[in-house]
């Protein structure tokens, strides 16, 4: 079993130079585990090349959930967000990778914050589903 990819903002992303961004939708999204999740923002890295799509979600209960949740339950939430939220919004593009992340609070993309728990997984599109990709 893989260990959970938990980022306490130790892993810093490089800000995207040619990225498109859309943000904050306060609508709560029902995920399999039952935790409270809402869309925060999406980023398309080099949209003219369809390289990578990032979908960031807020999950205020994340630190508590991580203490009690199995990796399988966490991955089920991330895969669900990829398939039910990200894929429908990517109908016009075909990025090589889709990154789904959950964070306990909003953070500026690419700016580390050791006080904010964050997890993410990478997927590729496989028809109408998301296929997990090791990174």
Automatic annotation (TrEMBL):
- What Pfam families does this protein's entry cite? DUF6497
Q: Which InterPro entries match?
A: DUF6497 (IPR045467)
Tell me the protein's name: Acetolactate synthase
């Amino acid at each position: 079993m893989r260990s959970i990819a938990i980022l306490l903002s130790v892993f810093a992303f490089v800000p995207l130079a040619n990225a498109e961004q859309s943000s904050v939708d306060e609508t709560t999204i029902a995920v399999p585990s039952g935790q409270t999740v809402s869309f925060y923002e999406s980023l398309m890295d080099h949209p003219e090349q369809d390289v990578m799509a990032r979908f960031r979600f807020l999950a205020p209960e994340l630190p508590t959930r991580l203490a009690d949740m199995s990796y399988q339950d966490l991955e089920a939430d991330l895969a669900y967000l990829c398939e039910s939220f990200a894929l429908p919004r990517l109908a016009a593009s075909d990025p090589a990778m889709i990154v789904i992340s959950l964070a306990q609070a909003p953070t500026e993309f690419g700016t580390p914050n050791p006080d904010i728990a964050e997890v993410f997984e990478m997927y590729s599109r496989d028809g109408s589903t998301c296929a997990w990709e090791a990174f």
